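Human: If only I could read backbone structure tokens as easily as an amino acid sequence. Take your time, and here it is.
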Amino acid sequence: MADKIKMTTPIVEMDGDEMTRIIWKMIKDELISPYVDLKTEYYDLGLEYRNETNDQVTTDSANATLKHGVAVKCATITPNAQRMTEYTLKEMWKSPNGTIRAILDGTVFRAPIIVKGIEPLVPRWTKPITIARHAYGDMYKNAEIRVDEGCKAELHITSPDGGCTKLLIHEFKDSGGIVQGVHNTEKSIASFARSCFNFAIDTKQDLWFGMKDTISKTYDHRFKDIFAEIYEAEYADKFAEAEINYYYTLIDDAVARVMRSRGGYIWACKNYDGDVMSDMVASAFGSLGMMTSVLVSPNGAYEFEAAHGTVTAHYYRHRKGEETSTNSVATIFAWTGALRKRGELDNLPELCAFAEKLEKATLSTIEDGVMTGDLFSISTLDNKRKVNTQDFIKEIAARI
């Protein structure tokens, strides 16, 4: 075998949980390490080690990403009450993704992987739709409370000089209820805007943005205004030079236009909208196992991951010794995305070329009719064959 491809700067490697952790090692052993002299700075974000380090390992991995510029992350568990018992946790640790996004101040871009034989449920979609999800604030940083009948809920803002502004939310005269407070910062919204504009220019795609500023005349309208101000001041000429467009509309109109479109653009969404719409787009294009995700910080750091979770049901079957057929494509593409970006930043064309080759080998495996169970059930290919988790990766290896 020829000499392995050399790397100069490490990729930050964030290991994860359950079935994706099993797949993670298979990908490295079968598809990458035989060809690349892999150089990584390793962080174990598995739930056990996060618990052992009081979640410090998550913060350390995010800071390492800011230092080295490129990271690749395996799917991780965000614990609930059941996980507290199952893993004997000290506390219900926060989402690792949320922690990393906050430290990187990044925007999440998610796009489907298009492959022959997996037809979109929306027939008009012939090109990928990339969801740009704001990764800060809204209900993910909320404060919420149950309210008894007879109570009055008010919004109080205390200024630095001690002054207080009050706004009535609701008087619960006839019934108890619920109240939720959400926030965002102008700094984070501006970072979101610049990440979206830069990504649109880098990928030469139009950028759409949808809000509900007619109803949310302060909160959503501030998003709209910040995007408009930054676009006019910093990006209008660059968009014209790249021959791409920035388009703002109401979120409901954006949804209608998306359904009628051909795809091929970036759709910027607030945090919750992006969370929901990325799953809708992934499902409509075929499978969450065929959805890439990259977190891009305003200062140019990148964290690549699969858009899906840890595939818990498959992991439980795997632990019992039962055969699984888990889709590894999005995790493979997380690795290829990180390798390609590392190659671009370090001027290593052979590393970029290998990433491209691995992606083509992965897609050609599916197009040859060899696929995991999720794709087998929706593929339109005539000669298709369902294989298990490990055999799918071995089939890819045979095509590199």
In short: The chain is about 45% helix and 20% strand. The longest helix spans residues 219-242.
